[in-house]
């Protein structure tokens, strides 16, 4: 079940490590893939193909979009768990804000500083290709994570401790509903067909639909040389949805697959679109001749992500 312009209107358009689940992260990367220039695509694919830890011969950014989640749960990657979110110590639903000094002061860092750090590592790449590949894989994932509103909120551990019901099933938590359940209801299970169909829907909205006039604002801070400030602005943007929708009314104990879902689904899709175009512009600067704020429109290439399989 896909949401396009008509259906979005009909349904109401008038801290865990995981964010967006598999389908969300892969679709966000696939959206970005549609806007990569040829020189960027060549550079990105060369780094990923040279990665000594790759699982397929020629992976794309879609294939590695969830790598950082798996790595965070490994013995060697435990250090990166805190890089997936920023715990805004605000007061929703009365006040939502992000303060870098207040909310990212620990030794482990947060998603804002992680995006800035791994961006710097790609501006000045390591001689060790595996380190460069890891920086790219982290960046692809974290630009996805930062668009999930509950990855920019500390209350109830980013919603993990808010127990809700979804389609009659108790034992769900709010964070998981935003990561996975809303996306599954919106676009289906995590498979190639649903990923490509949802990507096409989102890309059409970006080029010709509801998102076209929003793109300039989404890209208003996308200069890789100002990465810390831009990532902070992205976190503030995501956090704003906590007060305006996610926790505007207390969801604890409620069934969320009805009215709540119908209001949340357009937000989720727009955030996936937003993250996709930001990732594309970011990578076009790091690996090609792209410019901040400029979204090119290369030829359609939905099949790229699976040619390694």
UniProtKB/TrEMBL annotation:
Belongs to the nuclease type I family. It comes from Tulasnella calospora MUT 4182. One of its GO terms (molecular function) is nucleic acid binding. This is S1/P1 nuclease. The keyword Metal-binding applies. Keywords: Disulfide bond, Endonuclease, Glycoprotein, Hydrolase, Metal-binding, Nuclease, Signal. Residues 1-19 form the signal peptide. The keyword Disulfide bond applies. It comes from the Eukaryota. InterPro entries: PLipase_C/P1_nuclease_dom_sf, S1/P1nuclease. GO terms for biological process: DNA catabolic process.
């Amino acid at each position: 079940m896909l949401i396009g312009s008509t259906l979005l209107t009909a349904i109401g358009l008038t801290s865990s490590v995981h964010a967006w689940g598999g389908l969300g992260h892969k679709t966000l990367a696939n959206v970005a893939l549609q806007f990569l220039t040829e020189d960027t695509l060549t550079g990105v694919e060369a780094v990923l193909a040279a990665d000594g830890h790759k699982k397929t011969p020629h992976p794309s950014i879609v294939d590695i979009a969830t790598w950082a989640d798996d790595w965070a749960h490994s013995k060697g990657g435990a250090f990166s768990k805190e890089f997936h979110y920023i715990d805004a110590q605000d007061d929703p639903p009365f006040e939502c804000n992000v303060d870098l000094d207040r909310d990212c002061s620990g030794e482990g860092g947060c998603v804002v500083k992680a995006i800035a750090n791994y961006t710097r590592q790609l501006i000045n790449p390591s001689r060790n290709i595996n380190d460069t590949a890891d920086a790219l894989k982290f960046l692809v994932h974290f630009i996805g994570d930062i668009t999930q509103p509950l990855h920019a909120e500390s209350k109830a551990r980013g919603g993990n401790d808010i127990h809700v019901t979804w389609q009659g099933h108790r034992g769900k938590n709010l964070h998981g509903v935003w990561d996975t359940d809303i996306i599954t209801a919106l676009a289906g299970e995590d498979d190639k067909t649903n990923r490509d169909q949802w990507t096409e829907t989102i890309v059409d909205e970006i080029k010709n639909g509801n998102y076209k006039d929003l793109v300039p604002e989404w890209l208003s801070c996308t200069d890789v040389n100002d990465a810390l400030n831009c990532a902070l602005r992205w976190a503030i943007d995501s956090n704003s949805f906590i007060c305006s929708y996610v926790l505007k009314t207390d969801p604890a104990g409620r069934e969320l697959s009805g009215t709540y879902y119908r209001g949340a689904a357009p937000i989720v899709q727009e955030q996936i679109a937003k993250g996709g175009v930001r990732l594309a512009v970011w990578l076009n600067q790091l690996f090609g001749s792209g410019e901040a704020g400029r979204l090119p429109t290369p030829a359609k290439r939905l099949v790229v992500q699976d040619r390694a399989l």
